[in-house]
């Protein structure tokens, strides 16, 4: 990774992170993916008493196709059980295919179970914190939420499952969505500082465009 790409990617990474202090809530809401560290972190939060139950939401996405023997949500739930979370405290929503879908289908699941949590802790990857919270605020405004992620630095995040290239591509795609999704009614407005958008443009010009949505700005 060149110095210019590194600096720009770090700017975007820092923008996505919100660093919200955690308070005990009614429900841990985990938006699943290919990163099992999110499942492990959510289980740790449960075991520390941050909420009385966990919802894992997610089907199979482009990145997780063939990675797990079941849906993302089911795989994450199995990890939580192995770490000591009681099965009766886990709810699984295995059908959602994007962030908005996670929220809509989880809301439906909780209604079916006659559960009405008022305060949520959203658990996500570090570079998806901001868009996750913005999406939740738009689609479920009657509830209160905070967002958190495994305490990993930019330099620590990449591993044998998620490369630096994959990470930067997703970060860039999420920033594009943060900029343009509010006009489509998908999320709340977020201020994007000039330096952050310049970093985005630098990374797109450098070829990190795998997760961009075509014609989204039109």
Automatic annotation (TrEMBL):
Residues 38-143 form the DUF218 domain. GO terms for cellular component: plasma membrane. It holds the Pfam family DUF218. PANTHER family: DUF218 DOMAIN-CONTAINING PROTEIN (PTHR30336:SF20), INNER MEMBRANE PROTEIN, PROBABLE PERMEASE (PTHR30336). This is DUF218 domain-containing protein. It comes from Photobacterium carnosum.
